[in-house]
Amino acid sequence: MSLTTQAPVSPAYPREWRAIQWGILWLPFNPIMALLGLLFALFSLWKQAFRPLVATPMAKGFALLSVWLVLTTLMAEHKGEALLGLANFLPYFALFLAYRLVFRHFSQLRYLAWILSLSALVLVILGLGQIYGGWATPAWLSVLGTNLVAEGRPEGRMSSLLMYANLFSAHLLMVLPLSLGLLIDQWRFGQALSDKAHWRGLAGLGLICFAEIVALFLTDSRSAWGLTALILVAYALYLSWYRLVALIAGGAGLVLWSAFGPWGREPLRQIIPRYFWARLSDELYPDRYKTAFRSTQWDFALQMLSQRPLTGWGLRNFTPLYQAAMNVWLGHPHSLPLMLLAEIGIPGTLLFLGLVGSVLYQATRLCWRLGQRREHKHRQRLHLLLFAYLLAFGSVTLFNLFDVTLFDLRVNLLGWILLSAIAGVSQGPFPRPTHDDKLST
Asked: Which of 145, 212, 297, 441 lies 20 to 30 Å (CA to CA) from residue 323?
């Protein structure tokens, strides 16, 4: 059987699984169409499985966190902003808890990775047309939620159909590890396919991965550049390609030295394109105001934390407080942990990180167990797939150390869906292989 031709089915919730597939397929292109499927699955799952869902320890933890967020809203400096901020958290908690019931087989994770990889290729093609061809969507499509801006947003940086270049880079950072995982899976375990199908799959996935890496560089996001290198290093270590690790580390070291080295920078700057070292050192945009620097924003967030360490100032309160102090509007402090500490306090932040961390801990343990007996081909494939998902979620998590993506519907939804998929296959007893999980020989 081909790895790519048959869609797996969740036996308990087939309608909801199909609705989620619909939503994920449409999500990058039109969030309104995507929500039709995603909301149907959400409400249907809660209607069918309300009691089992609320009885789980994870649900009780998120209920406690929800109560804490409501309390911080009642004590917020700007209560209206904090009330709006609840919409960036509470619906996603419900989605995460419900979708775990659907993702019970590794074959679903593989199929989801294919959907995201193929849609990412379309996004990259649109992004290239946006940057080099001046492509743009007509006004009526923009109203419906599909918005391609000529030359990118901001100008000169690829953003494709997303609102901003950094958001597009966050989306690609979640998809690239999945695409690379599929490529490695095809390379190592695709020999059972006919020769033509095997090489066609390798070529297609190789093209997708290459396109995603090129697009990540064209987003002009420094965080994305660094995390792309880390993703490649992680897979090189996974494959024991230590020479590639050394090559990537050496190349990254030379670029960093050309940007920040205390001596010997000028010879390197003659070799390395200015685009890289000038962007890293901020010499590419020398006219930025002090208030636009992350260091200024982080200092202000830490001042907010020092004044209200327990309850914080309330969700979305960084923006009005920063504007009042600096006379500049800024949507967030470019660091999710610092924003949470400043807005919901230390207890709420620790609870949030603890709940997400518990999911990743459980999945990491399963990934470790799958990797213990690498002589079994089936276990190797499951190990690789779960590793890819952990790397995908870990990439967007690290990205949020230097940015905040939860205000974007599409990126936030995809992040919680990935986490629910990781939790779904990791919870309960060890998942038994289904027919679609296996590669026929």
From this structure: 145
